[in-house]
Amino acid sequence: MTAAALHHTTTTSNSSSGYTNGTIAAVPVTGDRSERPANVGILAMDIYFPKTCVDQAELEKHDGASTGKYTIGLGQTKMAFVDDREDIHSICLTVVSSLMEKYGVAYTDIGRLEVGTETIVDKSKSVKSVLMQLFAESGNYEVEGIDTTNACYGGTNALFNAINWIESSSWDGRLALVVAGDLAIYSSGSARPTGGAGAVAMLIGPNAPVTIEHGVRHTHMEHLYDFYKPDLSSEFPVVDGALSVASYLKSFDTCYEGYIKKLERKLAVPHANIDEVDYFVGHSPFTKQVQKAVAHISMIDFKRDPTNERYDAVRQAYLDVPVAQSYTDKVMERAFVAVSKEIYRTKAETALYAAKQIGNMYCGSVYGGLASLLSQVSSADLLGKRITLFSYGSGSAASMFSFVVVGDTSTIARHLSIVERLASRVDVPPVDYEKVMELREKTHQLRSYTPVGSLDNLFPGTFYLEHV
Amino acid sequence: MTAAALHHTTTTSNSSSGYTNGTIAAVPVTGDRSERPANVGILAMDIYFPKTCVDQAELEKHDGASTGKYTIGLGQTKMAFVDDREDIHSICLTVVSSLMEKYGVAYTDIGRLEVGTETIVDKSKSVKSVLMQLFAESGNYEVEGIDTTNACYGGTNALFNAINWIESSSWDGRLALVVAGDLAIYSSGSARPTGGAGAVAMLIGPNAPVTIEHGVRHTHMEHLYDFYKPDLSSEFPVVDGALSVASYLKSFDTCYEGYIKKLERKLAVPHANIDEVDYFVGHSPFTKQVQKAVAHISMIDFKRDPTNERYDAVRQAYLDVPVAQSYTDKVMERAFVAVSKEIYRTKAETALYAAKQIGNMYCGSVYGGLASLLSQVSSADLLGKRITLFSYGSGSAASMFSFVVVGDTSTIARHLSIVERLASRVDVPPVDYEKVMELREKTHQLRSYTPVGSLDNLFPGTFYLEHV
C-alpha cells in the first residue's frame, strides 16, 4: 500500500448526542521532576469496531458446521469485519480522532503515542507516523513513540511504555495515547470464524480513575512458532491451533502464579487467590479460551491451597495431578471449568461482551475486554475494585497485571456505550461476508486501486480509503 | 521464513583474548521504590557487523560510476553485507550473546529486552521472541519488551523505553537490553551503495558511565512517504531520495533548535550553541548526510546568534535567508558545510568511523556512531563530556538527545575494539558481492531452503542459518 487517500464520513456532532463533553488537559510540569506523578493510568478510552458483522449461528449453517460449533464451541456470537474501504491505518485514525473529539482533548496535550499492532501494511513506515496527520492542524509534531509488534501483545507493550514514560524523568507533563488494534483475518477453513476487527485507544496520564497497580505484574516470554505470519504477501497467519491454545494456557499459568505471589507479598495476606481479584479480563482469541483460562485460575489456586473448600469436588481426583496435565487432559480441564463457573460468571464474563460480539481484535482484544467492563459496570460498583488483565501474544509474549479503580468511570462508560453501539451494527449474510473476504484477498496489496465497498457500511466519523 | 535452524560458529574464548572480564550484575531493588535510580544509561555496548564487505572505490569502478561518487559523494569507504547464511534473527542473536559473554552478564539479570528493527521477516512474531532462546538455559522467561518499528528510528524508541522502564515504578532492579540492527539492502541502482548490515546491543541500567541527559530531548514526527517498504515480499525499500534527504534535514533543524533551546534553559547560558556539545553523533544513511547535518547546526546557530564570529564568512550573504532555503539551495549548503568544517572535524567525524566502514545499519546506525566514539576516544578525554545524538527514521520519526559521560568507558572501548575488528574483515570483489545480492534476491522468503554461503565468511561466535 502506498500513500493512500483517506477520507472520513461526516461525524455525528457531539453536541447533538445529549451530553456535554468534559475536557481532559495536560498540566505542564514545573519545577522539580524528581518525584513520580501519582495514580498513572487510564484517563479516557474509546473503541472502534466496523459497522458490519456476521452472525456466528448463521455462519455455522452456511459453513455446514455442527450447530453450536462457533457459538458454543468457540463462545462467539458475531464477528466484525471490514471490506476494502478500511485498513489498519483508517481504523486507528478513526479511534484516535473519536477519542480526542468525544473527550475534548487538544492534540497539543499529547506528548506520546504508540501503536500496538500486527497488521503490517508497510515493513518500515509505522502506523504511528500515519496518525501524525491528525496532529498537523495543531502544529504539534513533538509526539514520541512509534509502533510495537509481537502478535496480540503490542498494545500491552505500548501501554507499559506509556505508563513508564509518564513515571520517568523524561516526562514533559503531557498525556500519552496508546492505540491497540488489528484486522484479524484467516484463510477460509476452521480458523476463519475466529476473526474479527477493531481498535482501542486509551489516554494515559496521572490522577486517572483507572490506575495501574505497581509491584504485581508478571511477564512470560519464550521462543515459539504457535501463530505467526511468515508469508509477508498474505493477510493470513500460519496457525498451529493446538500449540497456540496450550501456549496461551502455559503462559497464563506462569503469569497467574507469578502475579498472585507478588500480590500476596504486596497485600501481606496468606494464600492470596482469585478472591483478591474483582474482575478478570483475558485476551480473547475466542471467548471459550478465556473460560479455560479461568479454569486455570482454579487449578493454580487449588494447587497453592488444596484445603480451599471451593475445590471440594475436584480435590480427590486432582490433588496430586500437575496443572500441566490439563494441556492435554480434557477431562481435567472440564472438571476445573465446572468448579470455576461461578468465578467466570461473576468476575470474567462481563468483560467478554465485546469479544463475543466482535471476535478477535488481536492487540485490541484484552483492551476491548476492559472497555466492556468499564462500559457495563457502574462507576459506584467499580470504585475500589481490582481489575486483573492477561495479555497474550503468540510467539510468545504474555503479561498479567492489574488496574485499581480509584475515581469516577462514568464519563468513560458513557463515551464507550459498547452495548448500544454494538447493537446498532448491520448483520451481513454469510454469503455476502464471504464475497467481501474474497474481495480483500484479491485486492490485498494492489496499487492504484479504488475500493468498491459501500460507504453506507461505515459508522459516521469513520475514516475510509478513497484510493490506494 | 519459518522456524529456521540456527547454529553458531565456535566462539573465541574470552580467556584467550588477553584480558579478564569484569562482570555487571543487577542489584535487587529493596524497600521503597518511590525514588528513581540515578545515572541511568549505557553500562555495556557491543556491535556486530559481517565479516564480508565490499570496497566502495572498487564498486565505483565495477559500476562504471565516476571516481569518487561513492567514496566522496556519499562519503563511504566500505559496505558490509551478508550472504544467505545470516538474517535479522541471526545477527541479533550474535550481538546479544557476544555482549553477554564479553561483559560477563548473567541472563537472569536481564528484565527487559526490546529490539528496534525494520528488517521484518515475520509480520507477527518479534525478533525479541527469537532472542528468548538465549535465555532458556538460565530459566529466565520474565523479560519484558518486544519489537519496535519505524524505519531507522526503532533503536531509539527501544532505548527511550528501556530508560523509562528503569526510571518507572515498574522497574524490578534488573537491567535492560536494547538491540538496534538491520540489513540495509537496495535494488541494483544508485541507492545500492548506501546499503550496509549490522546490529548494536546496549545494556542499560543505573550508575552507568554513559548517562542519559534529562530535560533536553526534542522529538519531531510527521506523516511522510520518503522511504518506505510497501512491497512486503521484497527486501527492497521504495525511496524518494531527494525527499528523504530534505526530510532528514528538516527534522534535524526542528530537533536541533528545540534541543539547543532546552539546553540553554537547563544550563542557564545565553545563546547556547554547538559549543555546549562535545561530540555529535548523527544517524548516517551515508556519512555525507551527517556532514550536511553539521552544516545545519551552523545554520541554526547563526540564525540564533548572527553576531557569532564563527559565521563572519557567511553573514553578509545569508543574514536574512531562512534555513529552509538550504533544502534546495546547494550554494547555501556548501557555504555552511565550509564554515562548519572545524565543527565536523572535531565533534562529528570520529563517530562516523563505523558508518564509513559498514554503511547504513538503519536502526543500528546512530548507535554504531556512538560505539565508534566510545571505542576511539579515551575514557579520560570523554569524562564529563556531552555526546549529542540525532536519530532519524523515514516516515518520519526523529529525536535529538544527549548522553553525558560520568564514569570510566575503557571497558566498553576494549570490548568494542571497532577499529581492529573492522580491519580484520574480508574484502569481497564487487563481482562476487553482486552474485551474493542476486542469491539473496532469488532465495528471499524461500522455505525448505539450505543456505549455501561459506562458513569461512563468518567471524567466530556468529550465529548462522543452517536450514530455513
UniProtKB/TrEMBL annotation, chains A, B:
A GO molecular-function annotation: hydroxymethylglutaryl-CoA synthase activity
Keyword Calcium assigned: no
Annotated TM spans: none
Binding positions for CoA per the UniProt entry: S244, K288, K292
GO biological process, one term: ergosterol biosynthetic process
Location of the region described as Disordered in the Swiss-Prot/TrEMBL record: 1-21
Sequence ranges assigned to domain Hydroxymethylglutaryl-coenzyme A synthase C-terminal in this UniProt record: 210-468
Domain Hydroxymethylglutaryl-coenzyme A synthase N-terminal: 36-209
SUPFAM superfamilies xref list: Thiolase-like
Composition bias type Low complexity, residue spans: 9-21
Catalytic activity: acetoacetyl-CoA + acetyl-CoA + H2O = (3S)-3-hydroxy-3-methylglutaryl-CoA + CoA + H(+)
Keywords carried by this UniProt record: Transferase
Keyword presence, Oxidoreductase: no
Catalytic residues as annotated in Swiss-Prot or TrEMBL: E118 (proton donor/acceptor), C152 (acyl-thioester intermediate), H283 (proton donor/acceptor)
Record-listed E.C. numbers: 2.3.3.10
Top-level enzyme category: transferase
Role description: Catalyzes the condensation of acetyl-CoA with acetoacetyl-CoA to form HMG-CoA.
Family: Belongs to the thiolase-like superfamily. HMG-CoA synthase family.
NCBIfam families on file: HMG-CoA-S_euk
PANTHER family: 3-HYDROXY-3-METHYLGLUTARYL COENZYME A SYNTHASE, HYDROXYMETHYLGLUTARYL-COA SYNTHASE
Designated name of the protein: Hydroxymethylglutaryl-CoA synthase
